[in-house]
Recover the amino acids of this structure.
């Protein structure tokens, strides 16, 4: 499934870093940055999360809420948030259900090996719950500037 600009962002329910249930539709009326990343505490994912953290006030001033999604556990997310002082929620998608909805779980290749993994992608969702932008070539160290132009 390939989501495009103008599509309604699929709603989902999942657990966050505090093991609390989260529903995307609870954010209707707000702009949402929903970013999918491969793994907590890896160099690229840390750079991306810290870039969003460092510009969080600016993002909030523009009306955005930031939500990260990976296949890591709530416990892993909690540690990542504490270590990097992240001010936003991270969604635990251990069963890959949210990844499947958004088409971010796919076959990848590295060093001649083929495997299934997260395709780093950011969906910018407007106040009505529609996708206003899909960022597929994420610049981890400069991600905020890809969102706010």
């Amino acid at each position: 499934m390939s989501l495009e600009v103008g599509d309604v962002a699929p709603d989902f329910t999942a657990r966050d870093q505090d093991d609390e249930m989260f529903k995307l539709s609870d954010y209707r009326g707000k702009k949402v940055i929903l970013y999918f990343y491969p793994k907590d505490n890896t160099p690229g994912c840390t750079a991306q999360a810290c870039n969003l953290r460092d510009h969080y006030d600016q993002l909030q001033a523009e009306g955005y809420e930031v939500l990260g999604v990976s296949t890591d556990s709530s416990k892993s997310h909690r540690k990542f948030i504490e270590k990097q002082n992240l001010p936003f929620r991270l969604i635990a998608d251990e069963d890959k259900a949210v990844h499947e909805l958004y088409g971010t779980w796919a076959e990848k290749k590295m060093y001649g090996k083929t495997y299934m993994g997260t395709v780093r992608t950011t969906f910018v969702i407007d106040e009505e719950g529609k996708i206003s932008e899909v960022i597929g070539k994420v610049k981890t160290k400069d991600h905020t500037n890809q969102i706010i132009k």
Observations:
- The chain has a mean pLDDT of 95.
- The chain is about 25% helix and 30% strand.
- Helices lie at 43-54, 56-61, 74-84, 97-102, 143-147.
